Amino acid sequence: MDNKASRTSDRKNSRTRQSRVKNKSPGFKGKPSEGKHTSGKSAGYKGSQDLVPAKKKNVQRFEYEDNKIFWCEKCNLPLIGEKCGICGSKGEVLQLSQPADVRFCSPYEQEIIDRQLHSAFGCNPLGDKLILLNKIPGEDKTDEVLVNGFIFGILRFELSKMDYSFEPSLQGAKILLKHAKSRKVELKKTKRHLNGKKCHSRIC
Fold this sequence. Notes:
23% helix
């Protein structure tokens, strides 16, 4: 009886060893036991595609395309379209700085421009002309001043002074030069460089 039981036990152990060797082979496709994880896969594993990080979408950046308006020289009016609705003539293109946020100048802003022009140049050649303001980047409130179809200058709020200041453009300076009665500087042509140096001038 003991020899028979021993032979039976040896057969069982041999079958068990063969089963373990077979399960460890590369081609093993047996099902994992319940409650255990194999090959680093969790119970909620959905496939190898979840391990691949999602590609970032190519987000295109768009700028405001309407970076211009039109100006009718005959009627002296800004136009949204290319053709004037009053006289029917074609308007001149007026390029706007980004973000091209143009609007009509309010009475309050007109008073600010008038005060700054009189303070800096002693005159206001704009009078009752139609004025547009185009918001541009700056430390604080900064606007291009548009008059008669061109940029007259830049109106900005200075945080250091807590007040506004006006800087004329080249075209604006030419107009101011004709009307200004004070604070004009006359410079003579010279071959010297003015960077970092003083110049002798005559203030009218």
